[in-house]
Amino acid sequence: MVKKASTQEKKIFVLDTSVILYDHHSIMNFAEHDVVIPITVLEELDQFKKGNDTKNFEAREFIRLLDRLSKDQMIQHWTPLNGKTKGSFKVMMNPDNALNANEIFGEEKNDHKILNAALSVRQTEKKRKVILVSKDINLRLKAKSLDILAEDYETGKIKNISEIENTGKDVIENVSQDTINDLYEKSRLEGAAIFGKRRKTIPANNTFYILKGSTPNASILAFYQAQEKSFQKISKSKAYNISPKNAEQAFALHAIMDPAIKLVSIQGVAGTGKTLLALAGALEQRSNYKQIFLARPIVPLSNKDIGYLPGDIKSKLNPYMEPLWDNLKFIQNQYKESDKEYQRISDMVNQEKLVIQPLAYIRGRSLSNIFFIVDEAQNLTPHEVKTIISRAGENTKIVFTGDVFQIDTPYLDSQSNGLSYLIDRVRNHPLYAHIKLEKGERSELANLANDLL
After folding, report:
1. Collapsing DSSP states into helix, strand and coil, what is residue 151?
2. Angle at which helices 274-284 and 247-257 pack, to 10 degrees?
3. Of 101, 181, 264, 295, which sits 20 to 30 A from 194 (CA to CA)?
4. Residues 223-270 pLDDT 10s
5. PIN domain: which residues (predicted)?
6. Phi and psi dihedrals of 24, rounded to 5?
7. What share of the chain is helix, strand, coil (3-state, %, to 5)?
8. What pLDDT shows up at residue 265?
9. Rounded to two decimals, what is the model's pTM?
10. Where do the H-state alpha helices sit in 230-366?
11. Under DSSP, is residue 170 helix (H, G, I), strand (E, B) or coil?
12. pLDDT over 90, % of the chain
């Protein structure tokens, strides 16, 4: 997909429903090229417009946008998009093609109707390049089997995923023993004492460092505060009796516990301790916040959200939230049942100081004095991540955890999911810190699965 004006002749992009549910403003992101919306897409959006989920919001906003753009014009004809650099759009009625996707694939379904629309546009606009844009990989493959050009919706995708993978942590070699000793003793040193002439560029905000000396055992963990231009020593301190087991976990727990950092993201494969550390850090700081919110995105079946499940809201959410409860129970079991810390967790749940929060109902709220943990954030869209963060009021901290390579939703990937988008867009901001956990700590058996299977 093209975002900037091109010297080539204007192309025609045919949009699938998945693109609009991902970004209702997508129709405006094709530069001077023209856009076709198959009538089947509008029919599908009509089914999605009711509900509290993000896809329902996207459907409603697109319908309103199309209504504003069309004004009093008939939209089966080319209608200009706003702005001199924009092209035009129209809605394609169900065509009667010689080549029929329903017959070719042996089934009448909406995807095939959208393919028929693309085939019809290509037949009537023979001198122009026609491209189907879809976030549905299988639909793109079917399009290519019919000799239709097809591509993913690229706006907002991270171009180089390896860049964000290495965000947040660095290693400095050959630091003098005297400098390491000074940092151990004083807990804080000026950046120039460590960087010296090593670095010509300005270090990023809130970067974690492993400072290594000339001997194998000479090293120290540190945190660089760009605003103060100083290094702070990091100790492997406990949070609600949970101790970090490696350098990256110590970095993550420091970011979680630092009151100056309001937004944290933790990336890592299963078993690296992302959720456990976030929960332990939240419990350790319970007196600083009114409530602790726990959430994870629900991947629904078809167009049904949790409202279609039986029972009250708690009953609907519990099956999806078991991994969070497992981590909470693990923390609680670090204590004896007679210990006050054990009972405190039960009391927090009973008194709703620790609450499971459905993300579908968060729009429009203002969350003040909240420690908010969002697990499996890689299954959120960029718009959903923005919606969550924009709800933050005074003294609210948000921690996103997830693995950008383990996507459960069909129209997201490692480059287009909300967690990747967050890391890429917010890195180097003074309110934000990111760390990638690399070593599995759940068990040797879990590490075997991650490494060998």
Report:
1. strand
2. 40
3. 264
4. 998 888 889 999 888 999 999 999 999 999 999 999 999 999 999 988
5. 11-141
6. -65, -20
7. 40, 20, 45
8. 97
9. 0.85
10. 247-257, 274-284, 313-332, 340-350
11. strand
12. 63
Contact between residue 206 and residue 430 where contact means Cβ atoms under 8 Å apart? yes
Provide the sign of the torsion angle of the four alpha carbons 11, 17, 23, 27, taken in this order.
Answer: positive
CA distance 451 to 435: 21
d(CA 343, CA 331): 12
Q: How far is CA 348 from CA 285, 337, 340, 379, 413, in A?
A: 13, 15, 12, 28, 36
Q: What does the DSSP assignment read for 356-423? A: E--GGG-TT--B-SEEEEE-SGGGS-HHHHHHHHTTB-TT-EEEEEE-TT---STT--TTTSHHHHHH
Residue found by looking up tokens 């009953």 in the block: 315
Are 399 and 374 a contacting pair, CB within 8 Å? yes
pLDDT at residue 10 is higher than 60 = yes
**Structure confidence by residue, pLDDT tens digits, 176-227:** 899 999 999 999 998 888 887 666 566 788 999 999 988 878 899 999 988 8
Residue type, 320: Y
**Other beta carbons less than 10 A from residue 93's beta carbon:** 12
Q: Which amino acid is at 410?
A: P
Reading the block at residue 386, the tokens are: 């923005």
Query: According to the model, what pLDDT value does residue 288 have?
Result: 96
What structural domains and CATH numbers belong to the chain?
12-151 (3.40.50.1010), 246-452 (3.40.50.300)
pLDDT tens digits for 372-407? 999 999 999 999 999 999 999 999 999 999 999 999
Residue reference for tokens 């009391």: 347
Q: Give 164's contacts (C-beta < 8 A, 6+ positions apart).
A: 158, 404, 420, 423, 424, 427, 434
Tell me the β-bridge partners of 210. 171, 221
**Range of weakest confidence among 91-95, 270-274, 352-356, 446-450:** 446-450
Distance CA(416)–CA(70), nearest Å, equals 30
297 exposed, middle or buried (CB, 10 Å; 0-12, 13-18, 19+)? buried
Q: Give residues with Cβ within 8 angstroms of 212, minimum separation 6.
A: 171, 172, 173, 174, 175, 218, 219
- The answer to whether 182 and 146 have CB atoms below 8 angstroms apart is no
Q: If you average pLDDT over residues 53-75, what whole number do you get?
A: 91
User: Binning pLDDT at 50, 70 and 90, where does residue 278 land?
Assistant: very high
Mean pLDDT, the chain, as a whole number?
A: 88
